[in-house]
Amino acid sequence: MKVWKYGDDINTDMLFPGKYTYSCGTAEEIIPHLFEDLDPDFSKAVSSGDLLFVGKNFGCGSSREQPVLGLRAVGVAAIIGKGFARIFYRAAINQGLVLVECPEAVDAYEPGDKVSFDLEGGTVKVGDGVFTFPRLPPEILAIRDAGGLLPYTIDKLREGR
Questions:
Q1: How many domains would you assign to the chain?
Q2: Rounded to whole angstroms, how far apart are CA atoms 154 and 129?
Q3: Gap between the Cα atoms of 9 and 105, Å rounded
Q4: Is the separation of the CB atoms in 24 and 33 below 8 Å?
Q5: How many angstroms separate the CA atoms of 161 and 159, rounded?
Q6: Residue ranges in the chain modelled with pLDDT below 50
Q7: Cα separation of 3 and 114, whole Å?
Q8: Domain range for residue 150?
Q9: Is the model's pTM score more than 0.70?
Q10: What is the per-residue pLDDT across 33-52, written as a single tens digit (0 to 9) for each?
């Protein structure tokens, strides 16, 4: 697992350049352009299970879904942040991408620190520090497990609920 750290006010253009909005529709087309202008190595080096530590207002800007779709597709385990833009937060729920607000963990992390993340237990360990966050509601976890809101909803309709 790798840990990636980014600062405050990272907008959707930094996550996925707007010039590709209408030419990249699938996850496979989106992934090579993730963080293209902010961190050109990201899309080549990110792996399933990686964590992102981010500052406040992460995902601000336009309501583009491509960044969330791409991050989910590469298998980012969670984005641990100081705060998220509302529209990005909603898009993450829709795609089943886990976002956790834990500013203390973000502040504590320095490159090279050993990190572990326990979503169900509500903890992030950074070096010798253990930081807690409110556990996500079971519905949000179920949406994540289903692969997003649409598959979750379809499953519920099929179950007759």
A1: 1
A2: 41
A3: 18
A4: yes
A5: 6
A6: none
A7: 9
A8: 3-159
A9: yes
A10: 999 999 999 999 999 999 99
